[in-house]
Amino acid sequence: MNELQARTRGSVHIIGAGLLGASIGLGLREHGIDVTLEDLSPTTVALAADYGAGRVRAAGDPSPALVIVATPPDVTADVVERALLSYPEAVVTDVASVKLAPFLELTRRGVDLTNYVGSHPMAGRERGGAIMARADLFVGRPWVVCRDRETPAEALALVEAVALDLGAVLLEMTPDEHDRSVGLVSHLPQVVSSLLAARLLPAPEQAIGLAGAGLRDTTRIASSDPELWVQILGANREPVVEMLDALAADIAAFTDALRDPAQPGAKRRIADLLAAGNSGVSRIPGKHGSSERFAVITVIVDDRPGQIARLLTELGELGINMEDLRLEHSPGAQIGFAEIAVLPEVAERAVADLTERGWRTL
Ligand SMILES: NC(=O)C1=CN([C@@H]2O[C@H](COP(=O)(O)OP(=O)(O)OC[C@H]3O[C@@H](n4cnc5c(N)ncnc54)[C@H](O)[C@@H]3O)[C@@H](O)[C@H]2O)C=CC1
Ligand SMILES: O=C(O)C(=O)Cc1ccc(O)cc1
Question: What range(s) does the Prephenate/arogenate dehydrogenase domain occupy (predicted)?
């Protein structure tokens, strides 16, 4: 393999070789970095090594330059403390989804945190385990680093080097800022998505059969691991409870207006809440990490092999850069919809050129 020049200097030891640990290992191995692995489960560590995420740590191995703790949040503080004691020369980071609880626990225990830099890649998948690991999991995703005044520059640089080698985008936050932020953009959506998906349980099969992109978009993360999320939500309960209370108030206001839409002002209240959603969604960063939004062209494709490949080839021939692609099947019909995101300035030409070539657009 053609190895990419690494920023990370020295060897890396990963404790917890599940989804996050094995993904980091896979990515670092692509840069030729020596990665050793450790896990409570001998099967997980062997699996991660078999997939190419690193090698099982041996008794005589020298101390690593960096230890990455990728264990569940409820044992993160324990494992970080142990790593700092076992490898006093090493920098130690963790990737837990919450940053304040482990930091406060380590501080409460009086652990010397000079060599510890908490971090959190905002990238994951619904299912954990080494078998789900991907080297490109972190590409283009934010990676938060929490340093304090005592953090030595070299320690910070080493953690940042790993994030950059894995293609992530660095951000600095305090543990408190981090937890409030992820409470809003990750933890609240998880609860809403799960509760919404749970409403589907009593529904008849026929109703579920009508489901389209709207339901899929709003429930994708409802497949997440309940055990991990009990830990994450429990550790970040203060901001999440605050946000759930505020959401409950919005739901109550919305429901009241909808209960009697004929009452004066009710329709306005409903419209205002929906319009606030329009404004909120427009703030979600696009593919390039800015608020830039793309124009979406919907192309009708026959449900036959090779149609999507032909469409993509023709887009390339037309010199149209596709920023994103989503496929949607029409229930019961032999057609699908390819939703292609392009820069707004090329949208009109793209529709004209595709139409000229015989494609139908919506
Ligand atoms: N799953 C996700 O989407 C994301 C998870 N995270 C964080 O990454 C961390 C790991 O999560 P995943 O990789 O998803 O979980 P996972 O369940 O896939 O992997 C965790 C691994 O840690 C091992 N482990 C548990 N206790 C241990 C201990 N005391 N010593 C050594 N190994 C131990 C387990 O056997 C398991 O293989 C968590 O703190 C999570 O909050 C961060 C970003 C995204
Ligand atoms: O929420 C998201 O956007 C994800 O991609 C999944 C995820 C889950 C847990 C994390 O700590 C970070 C990311």
Answer: 10-292
DSSP 8-class letter at 301: E
- Measured over the CA atoms of residue 57, residue 63, residue 65 and residue 68, the dihedral's sign is positive
> Quick check: 347 and 295 in contact, CB under 8 A?
yes
Q: Does ligand 1 come within 6 angstroms of the Cβ of 125? A: yes
Tell me: pLDDT of 2 over 60: no
Choose one of 13, 14, 20 to mutate for the ligand 1 pocket test, by most ligand atoms within 8 angstroms of C-beta: 20
Provide mean pLDDT across the span 134-156. 95
Q: CATH: 3.60.15.10, 3.30.460.10, 1.10.3330.10, 3.30.70.260. Which one for 295-361?
A: 3.30.70.260
225/223 Cα distance (integer angstroms)? 7
ipTM score: 0.98
Q: What is the pLDDT of residue 334?
A: 78
**pLDDT digits over 291-331, tens only?**
456 888 999 998 888 889 899 999 999 999 888 888 877 66
**Segments making up each domain of the chain, as ranges:** 12-174, 180-257, 295-361
Is 84 a pocket residue for ligand 1 (Cβ < 6 Å)?
no
> How is residue 164 written in tokens?
């950059």
CA-proximal residue: ligand 2, atom 1 (nearest): 186
Distance separating the N- and C-terminal Cα atoms of the chain: 44
What is the Å distance from ligand 2's center to 185 Cα? 9
Would you identify the CATH topology of the domain 12-174? Rossmann fold (3.40.50)
Please tell me the residue having the least CA distance from ligand 2 atom 12. Answer: 122
- Rounded CA-CA distance 272/277 in Å is 9
Closest ligand 1 atom number to CA of residue 44:
37
C-alpha 190 to ligand 2 mean position (Å)? 9
73 Cβ closer than 6 Å to some ligand 1 atom: yes
Is it true that domain 180-257 has CATH number 1.10.3660.10?
yes
pTM of the model: 0.85
Average pLDDT estimate for 222-229: 97
